[in-house]
Amino acid sequence: MTNRKIISAVTMVVLVGLLVAGAWYGWQSISAPLPGGDDDPPQRRAGKARCDDGVALGDLVGSDDVTVSVFNAGSVSGLADQTLSELTARGFIRGDAGNAPTELETVQFVRVLAPTEGDPTAELVALQFGANTEIQEFSDKLGPGIDVVVGDSFAGLVEAPSEIKAKQAAPGC
Fold first, then answer.
1. What is the DSSP code (8-state) at residue 168?
2. Which backbone phi and psi does 51 adopt, to 5 degrees?
3. Is the pLDDT assigned to residue 43 strictly greater than 50?
4. Helix-strand-coil percent breakdown of the chain, rounded to 5?
5. What pLDDT, in 10s, does the model give residues 76-87?
6. For residues 146 and 142, what is the distance between their CA atoms, to the nearest angstrom?
7. Helix (H), strand (E) at residue 20
8. For residue 86, what are the CA distances in angstroms to 90, 92, 108?
9. Is residue 167 a contact partner of residue 134, using CB atoms and an 8 Å limit?
10. What is the largest CA-CA distance in the chain?
11. pLDDT value at position 84?
12. Could you tell me the sign of the dihedral formed by the alpha carbons of 122, 125, 128, 134, in that order?
């Protein structure tokens, strides 16, 4: 065999080896479970809220833990969706957007609806609208997560923290 034939044979073996390795790696990647799926073991960082377990006193509740749904109580078209997009840009998990039910059409500025009084997830959401934002205990769920109702006088989000320490326990995020 000549040198040229030996070099060609070695090159072909190396290329076939690379092809097989790439195919194996690709198959492993596409057949792996998705992150956050049921196959992932639950992990809890010390002091960090896990929404499926609820929030304990002193846990850090971050925007990435909280699902928010926004509903429009006014006549400004698209206000709920725009507000929800701004909240998701701050790290909150996107819930639903739509029109508020009739009993909430009196909201002029913004109101955060909480499942329980003092809910730390609702407090974090309310801070995004200002320190004096009204939090109302509201047992009816309008959408997934914390519900927010915005009215025609709503001016926009303010600078706010992306996480807070829970002052009380709550059922979940």
1. S
2. -60, -30
3. no
4. 30, 20, 45
5. 888 889 999 999
6. 9
7. helix 3-31
8. 7, 9, 19
9. no
10. 91
11. 93
12. negative
- Cα–Cα distances in angstroms (integers) from residue 159 to residues 45, 89, 124, in the given order: 26, 13, 12
Beta bridge partners of 148: 70, 112
Phi first, then psi: give them for residue 74, nearest 5 degrees.
-115, -160
Does residue 41 have a pLDDT over 70? Answer: no
**Predicted TM-score (pTM) of this structure:** 0.67
Q: Where are the domains of the chain?
A: 1-32, 60-165
Distance of CA 83 to the CA centre of its chain: 14
Name the fold adopted by 60-165.
Alpha-Beta Plaits (3.30.70)
C-beta separation of 110 from 150 below 8 A = yes
Strands 146-150 vs 67-72: parallel, antiparallel or unpaired: parallel
3-state SS class at 141: coil
Order of strands across the sheet that contains 134-137: 93-99, 67-72, 146-150, 110-114, 134-137
* 131-150: pLDDT as tens digits: 888 888 887 888 888 999 99
